[in-house]
Amino acid sequence: MAAEFYLGADIGGTGVKYIITDDQGGIFHQGEVPTDPHSAKRTLGRLAMEVAERISPPSDSDEATFFRLAAVGLACAGIINPASGHLGRSPNLPGWEDTNLKRIIANEFQDKPSVVANDVNAALFGEFSFGAGRGCRNLVMIALGTGVGGGIMLDGALVVGTHNGAAEIGHMVLDPSGPTCTCGGVGCLEAWAGSVAILKQARLLAKVELKETALAQLVLEKGEHLSTRDLSLLAEQGDAASLALFAEVGHRLGHAVGNLVNILDPDRVIIGGGVAQAGDLILGSCRALVPAMVLAEEAKDIPIVSAELGPMSAAVGAACLARQEQAGG
Amino acid sequence: MAAEFYLGADIGGTGVKYIITDDQGGIFHQGEVPTDPHSAKRTLGRLAMEVAERISPPSDSDEATFFRLAAVGLACAGIINPASGHLGRSPNLPGWEDTNLKRIIANEFQDKPSVVANDVNAALFGEFSFGAGRGCRNLVMIALGTGVGGGIMLDGALVVGTHNGAAEIGHMVLDPSGPTCTCGGVGCLEAWAGSVAILKQARLLAKVELKETALAQLVLEKGEHLSTRDLSLLAEQGDAASLALFAEVGHRLGHAVGNLVNILDPDRVIIGGGVAQAGDLILGSCRALVPAMVLAEEAKDIPIVSAELGPMSAAVGAACLARQEQAGG
What we know:
The structure is a homodimer.
Chain A: E1 2-11, E2 15-22, E3 27-34, H1 40-54, E4 66-76, E5 86-87, E6 99-100, H2 101-108, E7 114-118, H3 119-130, E8 139-144, E9 148-154, E10 157-158, H4 190-193, H5 195-209, H6 214-222, H7 228-236, H8 240-264, E11 268-272, H9 280-293, E12 304-306, H10 313-326
Parallel strand pairs in A: 1-4, 4-7, 8-11, 11-12
Antiparallel strand pairs in A: 1-2, 2-3, 5-6, 8-9, 9-10
């Protein structure tokens, strides 16, 4: 009996989430190894060892079972050239910048075929394959994390652009008099809807306007450990200030979604990332704004849905991309 | 000898510009027939008669020459379903709304194969085939006319979207506190960069702020016949107010282009339409803004170029689309 496996791995700033799937896409194993921020080679070497252990045939097996890793898919934040495997700008892992990930995979995984993709593109491909985008051909994904990432699929193919710079949705400028963004620009979506921006705004509200409120108490109590999850729990208890904060995030997100629907007119828009766990606190005001912005009558009721695959989505998508690559594109 | 011809026609509010090309794309004839705003059937019937006359073999011909119309391409403003040929929302020709253009072409042109496309999509395909987009695969076109239209091409194919509502670039909202747009929205690109908006702004400047200026004199003198061409001539003479007006148009256009490059990362961006004849008066400030907005290093110096085919671009593109359709897509 032969068993073929596909590895999908999502390189994060501190850990590499990985998943091993069988040739039907079923999950065989999932796990995590630490990221070495200074060395892609050491990180992927460690991953290769762990994967090799997992897919070795059990030592007590009598059958002539043949376990084989067929292909490797890697997802990573930053500007990635999927053809060459080159990683350019890499905000989460500056120590990995300007390396050829395909070459390192070839070295560490005995020349297995590989595919590398931007992490949100991989997550979108995962949602397309097994999640909120099943059955669709044209999709937009917005990932609300520390920053805001994006992915675009047209007719079943990820759009990477001429210089691999497409789908930088987080840096769509929504208001030239808006807040300063981490990119140096002004009024980008990320300057409202990334967790860095949301926490900054919460602290500002606590300090300047709402000294006596529940929000101010929360900010004081949590200090540096304040999370968007803390804020959403407070909002769910009915706290007006944090409700308004998430509604503003959703409104700005809706502005970006409205623009994207007028530009791309997809089947649906998927909202993912950790911040999106606030769910309807954000999606409510987002969905309220979009129809009035969209020109094409039939596109006004575009479904704006939550991602379904959670934190493993990029690893799942990377494994799916590896399987597609192996099947000949 | 057999000669095969392709008809490309661009339906305008008052006239139908058309072009007849040979099977190499060479121009055999071009002309214009009036548009009947109440009847697509009468308009296309008249066009069919005129085209039939043009491609009849000369009566004194001794040769057994066979002149044949091989396919028809039609370009029209509005929301068009290229598969069915249905014209939905049609701002320039409300009397044509909700008609099936492919069926009317079949009736009036003896069941010739046909293709229908949004006018800016057709113009983009023309520029891709013979103009400013030659040799490219990924293109964005922005047409600055009365309103502002858009076209998007990825990997050599026009992007129409799930509900044929894509590339409505004129209604990208750039500033939620911007001027009101004809679409009912606020702060759309069109509310700055369409000729309606530019002329409105010129009249406002003349009335409110600059009573004694050359701009005020021009507005008074031209009255209702004021055109963006008049304003650009004044700007070219060094008039500060009209220079600033075009610089503002270019700056807002640059904001839209910057967003589009971050979303789509095309090979180049083509600026067309009558207003774009102002050339560097607009493109100067547009090009000045874009690099700072674009994230991907290699995409920062994206060429932002003027369209090359002029007022016949949509007719040319429609003929090219017809030829491609005939060749089997």
